[in-house]
Specification:
The complex is a heterodimer. Chain A is mainly α. The N and C termini of chain A lie far apart (58 Å). Chain B is of the alpha/beta class. Chain B contains eight helices and ten strands. A six-stranded mixed sheet of chain B has the order 6-7-8-3-9-10, with helices on both faces. Classes of the chains: A mainly alpha, B alpha/beta. Chains A and B meet through α7 of A and α2 and α4 of B.
Chain lengths: 261, 231
């Protein structure tokens, strides 16, 4: 078995500085061919790099901190809340969308983390919990946005059919049922599709990371599948919950269509 | 407007606006049990809005609607809509066959009474041969009938019809009118019939309420209605 990245972090800094030649390359090409991304790219690199450096320092601290299990809750809570607000912003036309996205992401993300902990797939160490929580909440957030946006679109385009159902005595649950089902499916399809091409077209993030870190390829593949199980498992809970909770924002208490749509 | 104690519906001071525009500006109207009340008036006079308010697809901004002596806001909306069913002007077909559409209201309650579905399809003047057909592929006139049958299969007490013959082949308009009149008689329904066609209102209704700019200008027995050919 290999030993992962064969240099230390301070040596890494020098190497990173040398790879910056690629940044210079992009800037030069951008100026030469007037692509107009030089400024944007430099800014993004500085911003993203600083954020990542901050996270790295935080993780470095947490990994060595004796009482890591105290602050980790704040971190996990922050992930769910930021995920909830980001997802809500993408459904910007829906007022107070964060009230439904945040609990949905929290539920989907937390549930899979609990399963991973109980099955011992995730050792209870910050090195595992933090990146896996990041993946769980991050993917729940994406799936939440996909499901909610699809649901809002279905709601907008099917207003006459929805009113017809309501006028015949359907409640919001009955009226929305088929659109809710469609939205959950549409939100999960991209992940299910990428599952089919797994290992053929690309080596996905978690496995690539583990390989670079020197993990046995078979173990890395096993872990990648665990990650996918986690993403789709959390996604189905999140999307189901968000389309269910959305009824409260799409319909009034007297079972009428909300007028913000 | 008399007969308060007999009235199925009392609308008092009904007002509704959309944005800055007032669509209903103080509607007062009583509708008796078992009658056909036609609502006539130019487009924008508030006829359809009033029907939607009666079905509670929207609420009035002020004023009240009493149904069977109780404010409609006190009813469970589902219960109210099953009793006062709306057949909108645009007949939106739900996914599936004619049978799926007509039995929709019953499926919501749990059991499908196939006999009642069949009777509603026949009462609405549809051929039973259409029962398995994809409802979305029917002609405009057939869709109107499916929408009517769909409403009848719920066994409502009050039928709210919004322009039930608009889009129907002119040669068949009178046939649709007869169908509706037969249903009303057979099932002793109360009907509120919105139409812009005054001669039709005079043919089908007991009384006519003439709406203009969100107000009831007059309510007269259909036989006494004087119409100068313009609103």
């Amino acid at each position: 078995m290999s030993e992962g990245i064969p240099y230390t972090w301070d040596e890494g800094l020098i190497i990173l500085a040398s790879v910056m030649v690629l940044l210079v390359l992009v800037i030069l090409i951008s100026i030469w061919r007037k692509i107009g991304i030089a400024k944007e790219y430099t800014y993004a690199m500085i911003k993203g790099g600083s954020q990542l450096a901050f996270t790295a320092l935080l993780l470095n601290f947490l990994f060595d901190f004796e009482y890591w299990y105290l602050p980790i809750w704040i971190l996990i809570g922050a992930m769910a809340i930021i995920g909830g607000y980001t997802s809500a912003r993408r459904a910007s036309r829906m007022p107070n969308a964060h009230r439904i996205t945040t609990p949905s992401i929290m539920a989907g993300g937390s549930l899979v983390l609990v399963v991973l902990a109980l099955t011992r797939a995730m050792p209870l160490r910050p090195q595992f919990i933090i990146p896996l929580a990041g993946m769980a909440f991050g993917n729940s957030m994406t799936i939440c946005s996909l499901a909610l946006n699809r649901l809002i679109r279905e709601f907008e385009t099917n207003r006459p059919a929805l009113e017809t159902m309501l006028s015949l005595g359907a409640g919001p649950k009955d009226a929305m049922e088929q659109y809710a089902r469609m939205s959950v499916k549409a939100a999960l399809i991209p992940n299910i599709d990428s599952l089919k091409t797994l290992g053929i077209i690309f080596i996905p993030g978690a496995m690539a990371g583990l390989l670079i870190a020197g993990t046995n390829p078979i173990l890395a593949a096993e872990y990648q599948i665990i990650v996918y199980l986690m993403i789709v498992g959390g996604g189905v809970i999140t999307s189901l919950m968000v389309v269910t909770l959305a009824r409260k924002l799409l319909f009034t208490r007297s079972m009428q269509l909300s007028d913000w749509v | 407007m008399g007969g308060g104690h007999l009235s199925l519906i009392n609308i008092i001071g009904g007002k509704k606006r959309f944005g800055k525009k007032w669509v209903l500006r103080g509607i007062d109207l009583d509708i008796e049990r078992g009658e056909i009340m036609a609502l006539v008036g130019p487009s924008g006079s508030g006829k359809s809005t009033l029907l939607r308010a009666l079905n509670r697809l929207m609420d009035l901004d002020s004023g009240s609607i009493n149904y069977r002596g109780k404010d409609i806001r006190e009813y469970d909306p589902v219960e109210l809509r099953r009793s006062a069913v709306l057949v909108p002007q645009e007949s939106v077909m739900l996914e599936g066959s004619v049978f799926d559409n007509v039995s929709y209201g019953q499926r919501l309650k749990g059991d499908v009474d196939e006999e009642l579905v069949g009777r509603s399809i026949r009462d609405a003047g549809l051929s039973m041969e259409l029962i398995e057909r994809d409802a979305g592929k029917l002609s405009g006139g057939e869709k109107k009938r499916v929408a009517l049958a769909r409403a009848l299969a719920i066994e409502p007490d009050l039928l709210l019809l919004d322009e039930p013959t608009v889009g129907v082949d002119p040669k068949r308009v009178k046939k649709v009118e007869r169908t509706i009149l037969n249903i009303r008689k057979k099932r002793s329904l109360t009907v509120i019939w919105v139409t812009h066609d005054v001669p039709q209102a005079m043919r089908v209704s007991n009384r006519i309420a003439n709406l203009k700019r969100g107000k009831v200008r007059e309510v007269t027995p259909a036989s006494d209605f004087r119409w100068e050919g313009a609103y």
